[in-house]
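At your convenience, could you comment on the folded chain following this short note?
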Amino acid sequence: SEQDAPPALEEERRVFYVACTRARRRLVLLGKLPKRPGPTNLLFPLVSKGVATPQFAEDVLKQAADAGVGRFADRLESSELDAVRASHKWEILAGARQHIRLRAALTLDEADSTKAGRAERARIADRLAQLADRLACIAAIERGIDLPDGLDDDTRAFAQSLLDQIAQTQSAGSGQVLRAPNPPLRLSYTSINEYQRCPRCYYVKYVLNVPERVGPALKLGTAVHEALRRFYERWRDADAEGQPTPGLAELLALGRDAFESMHDYDEPIDREEQAQALAQLKTLFEQLHDERSHPVEIERKVEFDYVHAGHTHRLTAKLDRVDQTDAGFRIIDYKTGRATKKLLEPSAKDLQLGIYAIALQHLFNQEALAGTAEFWLLSEGAVGKLNLADIDYEAVHATIRETIDGILNASFERKDSTCSESCLILDAVSR
């Protein structure tokens, strides 16, 4: 009866553990591990008992690469995911290369036997030569050049089958394995940009929520942003009260504190990275800081509704700083990385500045805002500026709508030219 049915949580726990036992070879769970145990954190009992081991994606990739002759595996076994049509030229060729290398390894194992006579060794040599020809075909297809000369009919047929698979996947989308998240979506400039750069990397980061290590560049950027937040908050308060405003010495002190706070108590501090962070703060103060600045928003998180495809999605923009100027508003985004032409000369279709300008419209409930949106490039003390009136808002909205449509349609193909390789974890765990 309904009264005797187990609670929903108990049923969920039962289904989860039963599903875990169905793994034939290994079980891989992709996602973000919660910070603390709880009744809904079903993975914690497995972790606490040593049954499951939390790892970062790059650790899994390294282990897969070190495991054997294949790109991502060390045995000639297949999973159900291997039977799913590959959605991308790279996947097709990687899978074929992996299979051939595994076959070659097994063939060599046959030779590593006292029972292998002359005739058997000759057969093994012929087989290895054919496998080598097939690898050469894969390399040629990968580079877009002619196939090698002297191929036998079977090898030519093998190469043609790869070309046919690639042609089919280029005319048809993927999405058979990767599921679309349920609408409405929560998006930001960062997630939209990630989808535009590589839809499959977006899937790994924002649907599966697979965490990444905090690298030196991210620590430096976070420390600089935190120091500037505290500095300009003090600046704004002192200016409003008619008190002396903080100077360079205080900014550098805030920078040292912020950088050290980014490290655990037993983690060594990279003094070169710290010096770089302080140098960028010094550059900002000496070359970009204006004593007449009137910051009205500092590290302001703006959330607003975005209606598209029959759903009211939620967009978030985090504005580093917004100043009130004689010409209107000045949106400032700090950049601690390399000063590229794209940042120095932002186009009217710049996605980040466009989304930030739209967020400002929602924040002040004004559609037509005067002023500028700027990238402050702290490594060089340069500014990339775009007038708010010159932003191609329709192009920015078109990119947002395209991203929403792609996500809801489960269009998560890899984009080679701008892929960050975060999505390689999917290949590593499915082989």
